Every structure is written in C-alpha cells, then in structure tokens.
Automatic annotation (TrEMBL):
Signal peptide: none annotated. Keywords: Membrane, Transmembrane, Transmembrane helix. Residues 1-39 are annotated as: Disordered. It comes from Frankliniella fusca. This is Proton-coupled amino acid transporter-like protein. It is found in: Membrane. GO terms for molecular function: L-amino acid transmembrane transporter activity. PANTHER family: AMINO ACID TRANSPORTER, AMINO ACID TRANSPORTER TRANSMEMBRANE DOMAIN-CONTAINING PROTEIN. InterPro entries: AA_transpt_TM. GO terms for cellular component: vacuolar membrane.
Amino acid sequence: MRTVANMEEATTLPPGIDDDGGRAGEKTSDEKDKQDPVVEHPTSYLETLAHLLKGSVGSGLFAMGDAFHNAGLVAGPLFTLFIGTVCVYAQHQLITTSSVVSSRLGLPHSPDYAETAELALRMGPGHFPRLASAARKLINTFLCMTQLGFCSVYFVFVASNLKKVLDQHISVDIDEHYYMAIVFVPLLLLTWVRNLKHLAPVSLVANITMVAGVVITLYECAKDGLPPLSDRDLVADWRKWPLFFGTVVYSFEAICIVMPLKNEMRNPHDFARPLGVMNVGAVFTGLLLVSVGFVGYLKFGDKVEGSLTLNLDNSALSQVLMVGLCVAIMGTYPLQAYVPIDILWTPLSHRWRRSGCMPHPVIAELAFRSGLVLFTFLLAEVVPKLGLFISLVGALSSSSLAFFFPPLLDWCWRWRGGLPVWRHAVNAFTLLMGVLVTGWGTYSALREIIENVGAD
C-alpha cells in the first residue's frame, strides 16, 4: 500500500488551498488522473469494464432468487434498484474524495480507499483527525474480510454445482467438502497470476460465460411456464428483509475494487465519467440482478435455493450451464483476491526486504498468495451454507464499506466550504442506512447460520 509522509501534519491544510478543495493554480483532478505514475500493465476501458462486471456479477447473481424470497416480487426489484443507486452514489463519493485529497496535498498518485479515508479524516473538523489512523486500519480490515469472504463463497458455489452435475454420472456419493478440495488446485494456480493485465482475457471469457449462463438459466426457468404472480408474496415478512439487503449488497457492491481498477487504467478519467466504466457496469449489473431474482423466485417460490442453479433439472443443457458457471466463477476468484493481496502483501514485502529476510521475492509472494487461498478454502469448509454465508458477508463488511464510510469522508473534506442542506440529508440518510443494514443484517444472518448448524 502507498503511504504519505508527514501524515500528522495533514490536520491543517497546506498553504494555498481554498475552501472548495482546490489549490491556487493547481491542475484539475482529470489532469491529475493522467499524471499518476505510469502503471506497468495499464488496462483499457473495455478491459476495466470486464474486470468490474466480473467482480460485481458472480455467485451473488444466482442467489438473487433467494434474496427475492426474503423481500417479495414487488419489494425485491424496488429495493434492489434503490440499493444499487445508493451504492453507485457512494462509489462516486469515494472517487471524488480520493481526487480531492490527492489534489489538496499534491500527492503524486491517487490514494486507495484506506489512504483516502485517513487523509480525508485528517482534514475534518473536531475529533475526526484522531480517528484517521484507526479508520485506515478498520477499512483495510473490512476490505480484506469482504474480498476473502467472496473468495470463500466461490469455493462453496463451485463445489455445490460440481456435485450436482457429477452426481448424475457417478454412483459414489462424494461429499461437497471433497469437491472444494478438488477446485483448490486450479484456484491456487489462477491466483499466482500477479497483475490485472494478464487476467483481462480470463475476465472476458468469464463474462461471456456468465452472460450465457444467465440467458440459459432464465430459459430453463421459463421453458415450462411460470406460475401466476398471486402464488408468490409481493412483499415478504419484514423480518426477512435483513437477509435480502445483505445478499443484494453482496451482489451489487463493487466499492472494494473500484479504486484498484481505476488506478490500473490507462486513462483513469474514463472510470467515473457519466458513461464511464462505473456507471455502465452498474446499469448492466442492476438489470441482471433484477431479472434473475424475479424469475427465480417466481418459478421456485419457497423452494428456491441459495444458488438458483441448484434448482434446475438434470437436463444436459442445465449441466453444461453449471459447469460453465463454475469455470466463470473460478475465473473471478483471482480478481477478488487482488485487493487483500495488495493490502497485506505490499507492506509485508517492504518490511522483509528492509530486513534482508526475502532473498527470493517472487517465491515469497507466491507462497503468500497460496496461504490466502488456503485460508479461504478452510473458511468455506467451516461455513458451507451458501445463501446465509452470502448474506453475512454482505451485511457485515460490504455494507460498512458501501454506506458508512463514503458519506463520512464526504463530510470531512467539504466541511470548510459549507454544505447545502440536501447534501447533509443525503449523507445522513446513507450513513443511517449503513448502520441499520450492517447491524440488523449481521444479527439476522448469524442467527440463521447458528440455527441451521444446530439443526444439522
């Protein structure tokens, strides 16, 4: 991770900074984006869009039927689009805050999420500067929890779908845990790829496979007809809503990867512009989530599984679909692991190099990456309930990153110039939403997991 010297001095703004976040005569944030240090393997607009879609559209997409079961056919789409809008708004807040603090402090790079939080809080009023260092550590912790949680869910998704397919062709009943062990090796090898540029073809193939998988899934659900809307809950029991929110935030949230993807682009300005990578990816993701969630719950009702693919019949087309989706999800795993590897490995490698304890840096990094893959594998073995695991990860860490920190940081850097009432109201609402979804959703998911484990 990048660090900034003399962070303690950032509680007061450097000379020449105006209250609007600019420095007299300084370059615009768009110009500054183009001045960032040259990335060794920069990605194009389409390559970055492929990475963003692959990071957003994964196993959570096929859990949307279960999510709509917890919300209802009417409430589900409305809540999904609303949550998606708030998520994207918060992502724009984070991108803007990163550009502003970089411009104010004259940084030679665009700070990542955690560094942005530390710098913005040091610019804030009152006691905010005292919380800056703790906030950076907390955000890095949540980022690692979220991404490693995603990676663990991928183990469960791939194993459960492989088991459903192979059970039709072999007479031996192999436990799902053994399938997790089987997929450990290919996921390990994919994680050894050390830069996003080389992962772009993998993401592109995975995206094509995922889109084809969605089309086939919707076809398989609708080919024999769909039941009438009156057979399903239009608005589910409100006590189920926390599980819905956790799943949707898990499925929609990409705030963990927006900063790394933007900073790896050849033209970072293309990421957050009106028709940039972030907005285009969000629209496409939202349409997919609503479509799959609505059709999945309408078709299977209370019997919908944590992954919609597990509800499909055993036809040849369904089996090809599940194998293809397993390949697509496996292709997503190294992208999700990129963030925690960057957060944890970078300072660790710097420390080892200074101490002279790392004569073979590449081998050491591959060993570290292997250890993270092993950790996510063991975590998946402990909590194999896919739908509940997705809700827990989404509620506990994704909600905090999506809804809690961005409005707080927005307040900090804008406070000197004064904020209009509408911005205060939007920030307060987003912050309250983050607290509610995180607390309520985490409690509900943990309660369900404990009850299910006890029942087993």
